[in-house]
């Protein structure tokens, strides 16, 4: 089965490669090719094509937050006073460079944004909220949810049904 992703088609072999890389991006080209059942040259060519097309955005290591002192995860719903294109873009530009902001989503029906924020503790959260959210003139409301247990974290993009 083939799917179109922007300017390239994604076939079964590409999907198998993507699945393998989402599980372990540290695989050598040789190991990846063996697991995908293709030649190393074909594997390298296909992975390069997926990277160049933007299907593979980047390859990263996922670090356990507590390993670096992050003990508090907050999920924030942020509502702005004004929802013009400029105001929405300005808020995104304000939070994007913040290291504590792990994820930022512009959403519809309800708040304007949902943020996932990782900080060391409640004092660090308060500092973040004051510096980034309270100081922003266009923020009307922030609703914070503090994670007490992470039941699942899976950054993998699931296959289409």
Helicity, in percent? 25-40%
Helical element count? 5
Q: Number of DSSP strands? A: 6
CATH C-level class of the largest domain: Alpha Beta
Largest sheet: 4 strands, antiparallel
Provide the number of structural domains.
Answer: 2
Molecular structure report:
- The strands form 2 sheets. This protein has a 4-stranded antiparallel beta sheet with strand order 4-5-3-6, with helices on one face.
- With 161 residues, the chain is an alpha+beta fold.
- The chain is elongated and about 55 Å long.
- It has helices at residues 12-23, 29-36, 40-52, 85-95, 122-134, and strands at 3-5, 8-10, 72-80, 101-106, 113-119, 139-146.
- The chain is built from 5 helices and 6 strands; from the N terminus they run ββαααβαββαβ.
- The protein folds into 2 domains: 3-52, Arc Repressor Mutant, subunit A (Orthogonal Bundle), CATH 1.10.10; 65-146, Alpha-Beta Plaits, CATH 3.30.70.920.
- 13% of the residues are buried.
- 35% of the residues lie in helices and 22% in strands.
- Helix 2 packs across helix 3 (40-52).
List the helices and strands and how they pair.
Blueprint: E1 3-5, E2 8-10, H1 12-23, H2 29-36, H3 40-52, E3 72-80, H4 85-95, E4 101-106, E5 113-119, H5 122-134, E6 139-146
Antiparallel strand pairs: 1-2, 3-5, 3-6, 4-5
Helix pairs in contact: 1-2, 2-3
Brief characterization of the structure:
The chain is α+β, with helices and mostly antiparallel strands and 161 residues long. It has helices at residues 12-23, 29-36, 40-52, 85-95, 122-134, and strands spanning 3-5, 8-10, 72-80, 101-106, 113-119, 139-146. Helices cover 35% and strands 22% of the residues.
